Each structure stands twice: as structure tokens, then as C-alpha cells.
Amino acid sequence: MPLIVSNWKMNGLGADGVALASAVAAKVKADPAKSREVAVCPPFTLLERVGAAIAGSGVGLGGQDCAPKASGAFTGDVSAPMLKDAGCFWVILGHSERRAGHKETDAQVRAKLEAAEAAGLATIACVGETLAEREAGKALEVVAGQLQGSLPDKRPGRWVVAYEPVWAIGTGKTATADDIKAMHAHIRSCLGRRHGGLAGLSVLYGGSVKGDNAREILGVPGVDGALVGGASLKAEEFWAICTARS
Ligand code: PEP
Q1: Taking the CB of residue 154, how many other CB atoms lie within 10 A of it?
Q2: Alpha carbon distance 207, 227 (integer Å)
Q3: Nearest residue (CA) to ligand 1, atom 1
Q4: Number of folded domains in the chain?
């Protein structure tokens, strides 16, 4: 069953956000097949309102980041227990926009993943190479390094890794099916070796997934679902992605 996760990024004000979440929830609820798992990750300010809008629909709620500490003097930060308290099941961590824009290191991402798992959240850890790294033939090496540095040693019950080539995020470009297949196999191989098994793992692809390319991407062997940014801001298009493989 594919897992389709929406990342609204820093988009959404009250009425529009609730309307978008309600529309997605209504589609999931009305779908007799129930052959997909869907999550929405709105900005922090909308978590409670979106949570209320999707209640009872089967759609999961997620945050887009959390602090490595549970509480304390960290002005502006939001902790994993706070996300849990706000009704989250999921949290996205290590997104490339945070790695690049907020200079998050692998060690910081790892500390956040540990905090999130300690708080009982299911984590979505993002990895992916830049265009320069891919062109230098270093994509596999870079992603292996990010997995090694960012992921905690302890294997959680439910864990998700999202392969998101940085050059494909928000650009309209997507990796080729062959490159996605090779990277997803590589991710499984790195994790299997280190963690002694892959139980509970889903590996998602992210980067300009849209209604018109979702079928091909979700059909690539080793792709367990998608992390969707821009195309998740319109209910119809997001639903087209959700249903692309069914
Ligand atoms: C993302 O933000 O994780 C993402 C994949 O964005 P987009 O779908 O817009 O490329």
C-alpha cells in the first residue's frame, strides 16, 4: 500500500488550509478501496485546525520539523512531544530546505530523529544529493553518508526514508526511473546492512511528483510512496497522485 505524504511547506492560512485538508479527508473517507495511506503535513500554526478537519478520515497528521530537545529555553522551536500533543502521528525531518536554508547537519538531523522517536512519532527522514554531487558521480556516496550520519542506530518500528534529489524539488525536474530504482535499492542495502533488517521501512520518492508523472514514479520497483510538495496544495492534483497506482 503506497504512502503518500503532503508537505505544505510554509503555505496555508486558516480557511484555505482547512478547506484543503477537508477536501483530502473527504476523498480518503469516501474511497472504498482504501488502498493507500495518506498524510498531511501543514505548518505548525495549522496543526490543530487541520487535525480537526481530518479527524476520523484515516488521514495522518504530521509536522515538518521538530527540535532535538523536548522542552526548554529554545525560543521559536517546537518539540516532538508538542507535535504529539497537537495530534501528530508523523514528522518530516532533514528536508533539504532545512539542511540548506537552516544549515542543519547530519548530526542535528539525527538528534531530531532520536527526539521524535522518543516522543512516539513516526519519522520521515529526507536524504538526497545536489545536482553538482550527481554530476560528479557522487549521488550514491552522498546519500550513504547522509543515512549513516542522520539516522539513529536503533531501528524504530515504523520508519520512512524519503529520497529527494535536491535538484528535483520544486523544479519540475524528476529523476529517471532507472536512477530512482538504483537509489532506492542502494538506500535499502545501506540500511539493511547497518540495522540488521528493514522491517517497518518505507522508502518514498520526492521531487516534483505531479498528477501526470505519479503513475510512472510510483510504479518504479522499490518506491513505496511519495513525498509531495507543490502538487499537494491542490486537493484534486494531490488525490490524482494518491490514486495513481490503484
Ligand atoms: C518536498 O517539499 O518535499 C517536495 C518534494 O517538493 P515538490 O513536490 O514541490 O518538488
Answers
A1: 9
A2: 8
A3: 229
A4: 1
Nearest CA to ligand 1 atom 7: 229
Catalytic residue IDs: 95, 164
Contact predicate 203/224, CB 8 Å:
yes
Using the Cα atoms of residue 101, residue 213, residue 92 and residue 45 in order, give the sign of their dihedral.
Answer: positive
Establish if 239 belongs to a structural domain. no
Rounded Cα–Cα distance for residues 220 and 176 (Å):
10
At 28, phi and psi to the nearest 5? -65, -45
Query: Using one digit for the tens of pLDDT, what is the confidence trace for 102-160?
Result: 999 999 999 999 999 999 999 999 999 999 999 999 999 999 999 999 999 999 889 99
Scan for cell 515504523, then name that residue.
158
Residue 11 lies in a domain: yes
Task: Answer whether 232 contacts ligand 1 (Cβ < 6 A).
Answer: no
**C-alpha cell belonging to residue 11:** 503555505
Alpha carbon of 125 to those of 32, 34, 143, 158: distances in Å? Answer: 30, 25, 12, 12
